[in-house]
Amino acid sequence: MIKHIVLWELADKDQADANAAKMKERLEALVGQTPGLLSAHVSRSFAGYDVALIAELESREALEAYQNFPPHVEIKKWVGSIAKNRTFCDFEC
Question: Which residues cross the membrane (predicted)?
């Protein structure tokens, strides 16, 4: 199993709550439609970065497929337009 963790700092702090809610809705909706994506949890942070994603995927191959899955690519483009900073960590467990 792969854990995929992404942290974002959002550019517009006045819209952070609304954008985080939209990120949660869109990213969590990928579960069940993205092959190999077992779970996705998005939360608004109270310290550090503004938003966190913790996703579980079946394998490294599933992570690669997820990164290129067209609905996810569309979300990544939108998030990239509202995010100031992003970091991530992927690991096997």
Answer: none
Range of the domain at 55: 2-92
Note the pLDDT tens digit of each residue in 21-69.
999 999 999 999 999 999 999 999 999 999 999 999 999 999 999 999 9
DSSP string, the chain: -EEEEEEEEES-GGGHHHHHHHHHHHHHTTTTTSTTEEEEEEEE-SSSSSEEEEEEES-HHHHHHHHH-HHHHHHHHHHHHHEEEEEEEEEE-
What total of structural domains would you count in the chain? 1
- Which CATH number covers residue 20? 3.30.70.100
User: Pick from 4, 1, 2: which is nearest to 54 by CA?
Assistant: 4
